[in-house]
Amino acid sequence: MMKLKYLTISLLICFNTTSFAKKVIIDPGHGGQDCGAKAKIWKKKKLKVLCEKDLTLKIALLLKKFIDQSKRHSAFLTRITDKSLSLDKRSKMADHIKADVFISVHLNATTNKNASGFETYYLDNHDDVAIQKVEKVENKDISGEQKVINSILADLVVERVAPQSKILGNDVHNAIKYKLTKRYKLKDRGLKPGLFYVLALSKRPSILLEAGFLTNKAEAGLMNDHWFQRVYAKNVAKGIIKYLDRNSNPNLF
User: Fold this and answer.
1) Phi-psi sector, 134: left (phi>0), alpha (psi -120 to 50), beta
2) Distance (Å, whole) CA 126 – CA 158
3) pTM attached to this predicted model
4) I want to staple 122 with a disulfide (CB 3.0 to 4.6 A). Which of 155, 169, 177, 197 is the partner?
5) DSSP string of 177-212, one letter each residue
């Protein structure tokens, strides 16, 4: 009887920890020949060139670590090394692992060197000119006929996943904004809708993170700081876990 009791408890524990576990796919922006945004900083009296692709990978690896540490959900990366991936390949990985959410990690850049702050984008349509400039940068790998096809697909996907993408974005943005504004004095640029093809092609609730501006000298140094990367990733993970703990997310297909 005692053995049966322990077996029952073990089965219940196993059921509770696996039945509600969800999968997160994390996409470090750029890679390979695509450096993304660039910055030059002085470190230990040496001029160092920073590439967005390297920093997004560092943040993504930390983000995976913190999600996995929750022991409730698991995280996967579209790349773990410095290699090129098309937007299509990145999004197909989400289908391959049957991910519940898609997280794209980026750093910002603009011609205005005084521009600063962090922002979070969720998949949805809009008519904001400023956001369209960001979309142009992040969607630059797609052109011609494929862009038309993706635009049609994006409209179909947005209708299905935009509401949950906004909730996911809100949970993540709320989780990061206190630490970033109070501890690091970063400007909160807000939660915004955006039509990014890598998000639309993933066909599931998705967000794109812009942690800060590499074109801002002060922020570039901060983005390269390991402890900032940890704080940022840890709080993004908190927001994702909060969302996953209370949501059941149907995929498009």
Assistant:
1) alpha
2) 11
3) 0.84
4) 169
5) HHIIIIIS---EEEEEEE--HHHHHHTSSEEEEEEE
Q: With bands split at pLDDT 50, 70 and 90, how would you rate the model's confidence at 128? A: low
CATH of the domain at 159: 3.40.630.40
* Domain assignment present for 1: no
187-200 average pLDDT score: 90
* Burial of 7 from C-beta contacts in 10 A (0-12 / 13-18 / 19+): exposed
- Domain tally for the chain? 1
Let me know how many helices (H) and strands (E) the chain has, helices first: 8, 8
Domain presence at residue 15: no
Say if 29 falls within a structural domain: yes
Examine residue 84 and state whether it is found in any structural domain, yes or no: yes
CB 104 within 8 A of CB 94: no
Q: What is the pLDDT of residues 137-146, one digit of tens each?
A: 455 555 544 5
